[in-house]
Amino acid sequence: MFTESSNSYTLQASSIATEVELSRGLWLAIIGTDKIPPHIGLLYNNGYYSVSVKKVDAGAPLANLLKAIERSSRPTVFVKIKPKEDVSKTDVAAFFNKYSPLSVAQLPDNTPASCLNPIRDFFAASCSPEYGKASFVFELLAVAAKQEIIEVCRSLYLRDHDEITLPKYTYREISHNIKALQGNYRLTKKTEGNR
């Protein structure tokens, strides 16, 4: 289901049969697989959790995310995670609410804050401390594969629904992408304010 090489990672994914499937359980969402790096979010029991340049989503309706993906036909992979520990009593929102919208600011360990940080924190606290070492989604997926908790992968808007190979990326690419998105977001807000 997940394999990696020195410069890429591959997921075996099939098309989503029904969106209801995504409303149950724990899913890692890799949104915009055509971008480097992609955006990472978490789906949990019909809620969407994410930190982006614009805002923090801590339990937003899943339907809102799916509409946004549909509007832009954004290629997305959803990885269903079946944790060995019961996470039903975990306050998922708390892991996201402690973050602000993304900027190029550094975390205390001198790495850029990214959309993966609250997800990594959630997995480290509720599944295994080993996830706390993951700096990129492919590292988090490698731990999940090693622990055999990846249940299934589903996709939307992929050309080849059976397999997707994504390039590994760096902190520099994360920072560059956040800076570009911040510029676009500020420009959009300024334009909207002039109307």
Describe this structure in words.
- The protein has 195 residues and is α+β, with helices and mostly antiparallel strands.
- It is built from five helices and ten strands.
- Strand 6 (47-51) and strand 7 (56-61) form a beta hairpin.
- The longest helix is centred in the C-terminal third of the chain and has 23 residues, at 171-193.
- The model has no long low-confidence stretch (mean pLDDT 88).
Summarize this entry quickly.
This protein has helices at 62-72, 92-97, 117-126, 137-146, 171-193; strands spanning 2-4, 8-12, 14-15, 26-31, 39-44, 47-51, 56-61, 76-81, 150-156, 163-167.
Task: Give the tags.
seven-stranded mixed beta sheet; 195 residues; alpha+beta; globular; 31% helix; 5 helices; three-stranded antiparallel beta sheet
